[in-house]
Amino acid sequence: MSVRIDDTDRKILAELQRDASQSLDEIASRVGSSKTPVWNRIRKLRGAGVIGQQTVQLDAEALGFEACFFVLIRTSEHEAEWQKAFLKALRDRPEVQEAHRLAGDIDYILKVRVQNARAYDAFYQALISEVRVHNVTALLSMEEIKSTTMLPL
Predict the structure, then answer these.
(1) What is the pTM of this model?
(2) CATH number, domain at 114?
(3) CA distance linking residue 56 with residue 59, whole number of Å
């Protein structure tokens, strides 16, 4: 479904990105509209798939997940069965926060959040026991400088 997005829609989306827990009254006030038109626009945007799942952001370090690894994976396997098994392995691992298939020398990059290096090793051992990979390089993030899910509307 295709949907046209105007300036008011963009303002509503920006407000939802900033704080999705706001009331309809608060959003309407901030975008210069009233509650019912804002609610109708939000419903339209949800129905079109522009607005997806709403969640809360948790503080990983406060919950004991102090290590963030970026895992670079090269594979010599490109068959459909291998890819199916690999994607299942990634989806089944809650430590994997993001996974991307890349163009270039590296086939995949994963963002993996765990408690510590020992927990990363357990993740790594489990992954390589499920699927064959040619080469794995793990890069430990020393400091998160910026992290956002907000799009530049």
Answers:
(1) 0.87
(2) 3.30.70.920
(3) 10
Phi and psi, residue 108, nearest 5°: -140, 150
Q: What percent of the chain has pLDDT over 70?
A: 99
pLDDT for res 113: 98
Which structural domain range is residue 75 located in?
67-140
DSSP string across 3-28: ----HHHHHHHHHHHH-TTS-HHHHH
The answer to whether position 53 is within a domain reads no
CATH number at residue 39: 1.10.10.10
pLDDT digits (tens, 9 = 90+) for 95-119: 999 999 999 999 999 999 999 999 9
pLDDT at 1: 59
3-state secondary structure of 71: strand
- Are the C-beta atoms of 116 and 84 separated by less than 8 Å? no
- Work out how many domains the chain is built from and give that number: 2
Closest CA to 95 of 119, 78, 75: 119
Establish if 2 belongs to a structural domain: no
Residue-level pLDDT at 131: 94
